[in-house]
Amino acid sequence: MSKAIQKMETIQAIDRAFQILETISRTGNMTLAELHDKINISKASLSRLVYTLVENGYIEKRNNNEYSLTLKAYEVGINAVQNLDQISLINSTLADLSRETGRVAQFSIEDNNQLLCVQSIGQTAPSFSVYTNVGRRSPLYCTSAGKAILSAYSNNEIIERWEKFDVKPLTEHTITDVHALLQDISEIKQRHYALDREENEYNIFCVGALVMNYTNTPLGAISISGNTLTGEEERTISETLVAAVKRLSATLGYVMR
C-alpha cells in the first residue's frame, strides 16, 4: 500500500525573516512602523525578528531609528551571483526560446557603440542572416537587441551618443532621425520589448528584450529572429521573450525597483 506523500512545511519565523530582508532591500531604510505596515506580522514578533537579524549582522539600526541592509547581506548576494555560471544560464534561455518559437535566439551586448552578437542558437545555415552570426557587429539604432539596450538610457544620453553611431539607411525602413528613434524607444519602455521590422536587413524581423544583472544595469539583450512577423507572431513571441528575460534577469540578481 502506497504511503501518502506529505508536504514539508516551512518554518514561519524564517519565512518572515526573509520577508523582512526582501522588503527592506526593495524599499531602502525603514522604521519598525513602516515595516509593520508592509508586512502582516504582529509588532512583538516583528521586533524580535528584526532584533535577531541585527544581532546576526544582516541589518543595522541607524540613528533615525530606521533599519537598512548591511554589507553582510550584500556579501551573501554577491557571492551567490559570482557563483552563477552566467554563460550557461544565457545559453539555456536561448535554447528554450529557440525551441519554443522555432526561430533563431541570440544574445548580444553593447560594445564600443555597436551591438556585438556573442551567442546564437537555432540556425545552422549561414545564409540565414549575417546579423545572427556570433561575432557579428550591428548598429544599435536599427536592431531589436540594440534598441532594447538603448531603452535603458535617458533621452539625453541617447542624443549625446547619436553622432557616434555613424547612422545610415541600411534598408528603406531604417530609422535615421534621432527624434523618431526616441519615439520608438519610448514605446519600447512601455511594452518592454523592441522590434526590428527589416530595419537592419531585408526579410529579417526581430523581437528583442533587455537582460539586467545584479548591479541593476544592462547585461545585454536577447532577440528572436525570423523571416516573418505577423501581429499574432509578435504577440506570442514577445510574451514568451519578455517572460524569459525577466526570469533570467532575476536569476542574475536583478531587483526591479
Automatic annotation (TrEMBL):
Domain HTH iclR-type: 11-71
Keyword Transit peptide: no
Domain of life: Bacteria
Record-linked InterPro entries: GAF-like_dom_sf, HTH_MetabolicPath_Reg, Tscrpt_reg_IclR_C, Tscrpt_reg_IclR_N, WH-like_DNA-bd_sf, WH_DNA-bd_sf
Residue ranges occupied by any IclR-ED domain in the UniProt entry: 72-254
Molecular functions (GO terms): DNA binding
Entry coiled-coil feature ranges: none
Pfam families, A to Z: HTH_IclR, IclR_C
Keyword NAD appears in the UniProt entry: no
Entry keyword set: DNA-binding, Transcription, Transcription regulation
Protein name, per record: DNA-binding transcriptional regulator KdgR
Organism lineage: Bacteria, Bacillati, Bacillota, Clostridia, Lachnospirales
